[in-house]
Design a protein that fits this description.
4 domains; alpha+beta; four-stranded antiparallel sheet; Chitinase A, domain 3; 666 residues
Length: 666
Amino acid sequence: MATLQKIRNHGALLIAIVGLAMLAFILGDFLNSGSSFFNRSRENVGVIEGEKIHYTEYEAAKEQLTEVYKIETGRSDFDEDMSAQIRNQVWNMMMMDYTLRAQAKKIGMDITKDELSELCIGKNPHQIIRGRRAFFDENGQFSRDIVVNLLQAINNEEDGENANLKQAKTYWLYWEKAVRISYMQEKYTSLLQHLLKANSLEAEYAYNGRQKGVSAEYVMQPYFTVADSLVNVKESDIKKLYAQHKSQYKQTPNRAIKYIAFNIEPSEEDFTAAKELLESLKEEFKTAEDVSLIVNTNSDVMYDGRDFSEETVPAQFKEFAFAKGAKAGDCTDILFENNTYAMARIMQAGYSLPDSVELKAIVEEGEDQELGWFRASDLPKNIADPAFAGKRGTRFTVAQGMGEQTYEIMDISAATPKVKLAILAREVSASSKTYSKIYNEAKQFIVANKNAEAMESAAQAAGMTVVPQYNLTATTDKVGQLKASRPIVRWAFEAKEGQVSDVFECGQQFIIAALTEVNDDEYRPLEAVRAELTYEATNNAKAAYISAQLKDIKSLEDAANIMGQQIQSTERVSLSDSRFGNAGMEPAVIGKTVAMGENTLSAPIQGNMGVFVVKTGAANNAAEEEAYNADTEKAQLESRMAYLPYQAIQLIEDKADVIDNRANFQ
C-alpha cells in the first residue's frame, strides 16, 4: 500500500526519529501469552519490580522493534552493532515500562482507551504521531485522514495474510505504544512538577542572596606550590576518604582482560592463486557470448545488466568505459587495486538513458503519495525497468506483496551516456590453508603461554600489541571494536583470574585473551581508586600544612608574605555567585566570606584549588536593587527545579528492584 511504500522510501529521513521513539517504546498486552512457562525462572530474561520477563516476551519485543527498523530504514540486513542496539533498547524500554507502570499503580494513575484513542487519532494527535512523515500530505503537512485510512485498512483486513498490512500494523502498534508511554511520562512528570513549589521563606532567601553582598580582598596559595615531600599522607587518611566516598564507587560485576590478535591475512600463495584464476578465465571472458555465466560463477561482482554512468561506474574502469571510440567487446587487462584482481568487458556502449525518475504511488481510495526521485539502483528491478522505460505521465502496475501497486512517472531526468560492463573481480582472501596456518600459530602460542603474565611477556617479546579492555559486564555486547566478540565476554565470566583463553575468531582476526581482573564486589576496591584518593588526601595534607604556616597572622599582608602570593580583590561576593573573584569555582570560600562580618579577617579557608585568607570590606547591595516580588522569586525558583521531575524518572529506574539475566540468553 502507498503509505507503507512511502515509509520505506523516506527511510533515511525517518531513521533520525527512531531514537526519540525508543525512549517511549513499551511492550503491550498483545505480547503477553499468559503461558504457564512464565513461572519457570530459568526461562526468565529478568525480573523488574517483581514482574518476570519471560524469554518469549523479550524475543517478541526484539522482533517487533526489528520490524519497525526494517520499515523505517528500508533495510533488512542488520550488522551486529545494530542487533545489539535493538537488544539494549528493548531491555531499556522494558525497564521504563515496568518501573513507571509500578509507580503509576501506586498512585492510581493510568491512561484509558479513550485517552489513547484521542492522542492517536483525535483532533489534535500527540506530537509523536504528528511528527511521522508517513502521515504527511503532498504539502508536507500532517494529515489525520492518512492516519485514519491506514487504521481502516488494518482493521478491515480479515485473513491477516496481506504482508503489507501486517507490516503496517506492526508499524502502527509501535507508534501507538510510543504515544502511550510518552503520555504516561508526561502525566507523571506533570504531577511531580505541581508538587515542587517554592515557599515564601525560600523566595526571600533567594532575593537576599542576590541583593546582599560584601566586598573582599584575598590571597590564595595553590596546592601545587607545595612539594609533595613536605607533607605526609598516611594509609589511614586514604582509608578514611574511601569510607567517606564509598557510595560513589558502587559497581556492576565486571571483568578486565588483555588480548592479542593474529590477523587473518592472505599469503603470497593466495595472491598468486587469485591472479592465476583470472588469467585462466581471461580468454573465455573476452569472447564468451553468455558472459553472465562466467562472471556470476567466478566473480565477486555479479553481472545484472545494469547501466553505468560516469558517476556510478567503478573509478578504475571510468577512463576505459567512456573513452572515445569505446565499443562492445573491448576488454581491459587484469588490474590490481585494493587487494582485488579485476578486468572489465564492455557489453554495450554508445547509448544514453535518464539518470533518475520521480515517482508517485497511485492510491485507489485516498490521496496519491509523491515518493520522490530515484536512481535505477535505488529501486527493485520490477519497478526500475518500467520506470526508466516510460515517459512523463506514464502509469505502470507491478506485483507487490500479496497485491499490486500502480505508479505514475511524474518526471524523468535528461538522458546521459551509459555503458554496460561485465566485471570479473576476485578479492584476495586467506585460503583455507592460510587460515589453518594462522590458527595453528595462535594455538601454539597458547600452549607455550598458559597464564596472563606469560602471555603478555611473550607477546611483547614478539612485538605484538597487548590490548587492555576494562569494565566488561555480563551483558557487554562486544569487546572494544572486535567483531563477533560476545563469546569472549561469556568466557571472561566463566574463567578464573590469570587464565588464558582458547582462540576466538573475531572477523578477520584470531584473538587470545587473558583474564586480568575479576570484580564481583558491590563496590570498587580501594586499590582501584587509590590514585584519586591519594590526590585528594595529599591536597588535604597540603591544606593543613599551609594553614599551620598562617596560624599567627594578624593581617592579609602577613598572609601574602608567608604564602608568597599577591593580594587580589573582588568588588562584591554574594550567595548567588558561582565563582569567587578570579579563583574559579570555590563555593566553600564564597559561603564563609558572605557569613563573615564587615571588615573581618578570616582564618585559613580550604578551597578546591588552594588555601585562602579573606578580608571582608563593607557590605553592599546589588548595583541595581530590585523590588522584592514574592511571586516572581517563587517562579524563578520553580523554573530552576523544572528538571527534577525528569531526573526522577531516571532515579526510579536506577533504584528499581531488577534482576538482569540477559547474559544467559545472548
